[in-house]
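Example for tutorial group B:
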């Protein structure tokens, strides 16, 4: 396994996963020089797949109006010198564990696993109010891709709740909860829309949330971040059948935000942990995101182009079968 599998962690390199991640500002935004200078924290990698911890504010791939802005695909492709393929996505504002395929065959196999619901995707979210202790949101979601509606299912479990003596909007007190979510489907903004549907929107959600509670979250935590994190992912590797479990843990900002909101994450939730076939490849601190990408926003391509839109990008040098940003499941 050591010959073909790499997990960049303290167990092998003496550094936490992604410890070499840098944010060096050089070159034009979309230039090959700049893309080669940026790093994305890699939690697990073999010759078939790579699993990263996506920072908040970083797009998975390009959109219509920001085609020169660095994204996961061109940063990871540049650092690995590989053709990186998307199989699922996270919103721009969502942080956490994300898997990419490094070959055409693994992309097809991973896509099939995702379609069949054989990839476990767990999230953590800080939400308004006190939901039931556990439950299932089985609500169809509608949109441009599914005008007739698409089945969507999200399980949730409340891990911690608090009451803060501060008025928010029409409420005399601020009730907040830390919820663990398991997504069984991958629809656009699924976690955010489902939590909005049960009247417990995620703090920091500017599209599906509550403006008064978003302001409360900013004042309490000092940041306009979306409080949604892709916390854990588990799947059987398509090329070997071995079970891979990657837990991103909670970076310092999340730990401090929970403390500020009087929320307590269960023991072990802060830890980053990578296991393959029962062997622990890494166990330690979560990756701290670089300041480079800490900008709120969503990569749905629905915004108007900025005044300084630079036009089409310079193409990053890759081999001819480099993937395009074709549609893939959205998880958050």
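The residue assignment follows.
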């Amino acid at each position: 396994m050591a010959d073909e599998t790499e997990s960049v962690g303290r167990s092998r390199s003496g550094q936490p996963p992604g410890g070499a991640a840098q944010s060096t500002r050089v070159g034009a935004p979309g230039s090959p020089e700049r893309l080669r200078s940026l790093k994305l924290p890699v939690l697990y990698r073999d010759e078939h797949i790579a699993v990263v911890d996506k920072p908040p504010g970083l797009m998975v791939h390009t959109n219509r109006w920001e085609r020169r802005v660095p994204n996961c695909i061109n940063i990871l492709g540049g650092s690995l010198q590989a053709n990186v393929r998307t199989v699922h996505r996270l919103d721009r504002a969502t942080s956490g564990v994300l898997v990419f395929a490094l070959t055409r065959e693994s992309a097809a196999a991973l896509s099939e696993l995702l379609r069949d619901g054989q990839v476990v995707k767990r999230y953590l979210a800080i939400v308004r109010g006190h939901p039931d202790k556990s439950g299932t949101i089985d609500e169809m979601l509608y949109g441009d891709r599914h005008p007739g509606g698409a089945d969507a299912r999200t399980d949730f479990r409340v891990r911690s709740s608090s009451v803060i003596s501060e008025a928010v909007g029409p409420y005399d007190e601020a009730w907040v909860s830390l919820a663990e979510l398991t997504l069984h489907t991958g629809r656009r903004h699924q976690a955010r829309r489902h939590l909005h549907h049960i009247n417990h929107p995620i703090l920091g959600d500017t599209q599906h949330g509550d403006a008064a509670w978003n302001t409360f979250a900013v004042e309490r935590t000092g940041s306009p971040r979306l409080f949604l994190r892709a916390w854990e992912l588990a799947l059987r590797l398509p090329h070997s059948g071995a079970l891979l479990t990657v837990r991103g843990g909670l970076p310092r900002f999340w730990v401090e935000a929970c403390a500020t909101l009087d929320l307590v994450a269960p023991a072990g939730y802060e830890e980053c942990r990578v296991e393959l076939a029962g062997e622990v490849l890494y166990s330690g601190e979560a990756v701290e995101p670089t300041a480079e990408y800490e900008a709120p926003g969503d990569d749905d391509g629905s915004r108007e182009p900025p005044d300084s839109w630079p036009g089409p990008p310079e193409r990053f040098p890759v081999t001819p079968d480099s993937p395009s940003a074709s549609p893939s499941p959205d998880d958050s």
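The radius of gyration is 19 Å. Compare this with the pattern of hydrophobic and polar residues in the output above.
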